Amino acid sequence: MLTALDSPIVLAPMAGGPTTPDLVSAVSDAGGFGFLAGGYLDADALGAAVAAVRKRTERPFGVNLFLPGERHGAGVASYRERLVAAGLEPGDPVWDDDGYPDKLALLLSDPVPAVSFTFGCPDPDAVSRLHAVGSEVLATITTPEEARQAAAAGVDGLVVQGVEAGAHRGVFENDPADPAGGPQYGLLALLRLVAAAVDLPLVATGGIVDGAGVAAVLAAGASAAQLGTAFLLCPEAGTKPAHRAALGDPERPATAITRAFTGRPARGIRNTFLDDHTDAAPAAYPQVHHMTRPIRAHGDPASMNLWAGQAYPLARSLPAAELVATLLEEAREATSRAAAGVAR
Fold first, then answer.
1. Are strands 224-227 and 266-269 parallel, antiparallel or unpaired?
2. Beta pairing partners, 293
3. Angle at CA 38, nearest 5°, toward 253 and 119?
4. Which end of the chain is more exposed for a tag (fewer CB within 10 A), N or C?
5. How big is the chain by its Cα radius of gyration, in Å?
6. What parts of the chain have a pLDDT lower than 50?
């Protein structure tokens, strides 16, 4: 995958609805590389999504899986009581493994060109088994130390996630003592540190919404740029109406990192729920995710997760293929400007 891309544009796997088979196939058909989000889906639903992409395109694509974490329940009961006291109706704080074993088995029996992992380091056995069926394996990392761990597990490449990224941070350890779950590295600094730490192809992600951002990370050593927020306004995306409206809010509210919605640190546009509950939310994923699901399901922009990267005001409402072409043209122009600046 990383050595045979037609273009350096990779569609981020956005779990929970935004990443649809239509969006994945449109990006891949336009010369990019689309990733399906396997998070929150059971194996049957993921299999159906893989089949739907194959029906729409013959181009290669990948699947992302969430790695299950350990059970951490501290603070869950008191957080639930807080939500009830606020007049909300939370669900039960259950723990599950996101169906990971069944989804891994699916991808071993029905392989795709690339599989990426988030929320931890894949074990070497899983990496070897995926290699045996012809899949490239990538791990999402947020620090140089995580990069070294993933390299030792035998992965083929790294998705290097800067703190600017929207939605969940891919931290291996969800440190309860740190509101951001762990060290916070800006993308360009992290790219250079990781490039010095390991000898693997790097896919940069976090706050990249236009072609100049793509050019910047390629200049900093990335093989490709993975964009999520940039595609949320595409007609092929499954972005909820309230989320689309928030992305276009002329007041451009700031983003913040919070555990309030899921128990894992994630960046979203600030709203009432985020501001009211961030300081009280425990590091308990997926229990908090299941607790807030019925609250978020109402579609009220004041109480739903509005995931977005820091540069979300630059997102455009364009068909996916047109957006890929625009990003590439902008990246070429930015590269030319940079070359001219260096040549002075």
1. unpaired
2. none
3. 70
4. C
5. 19
6. none
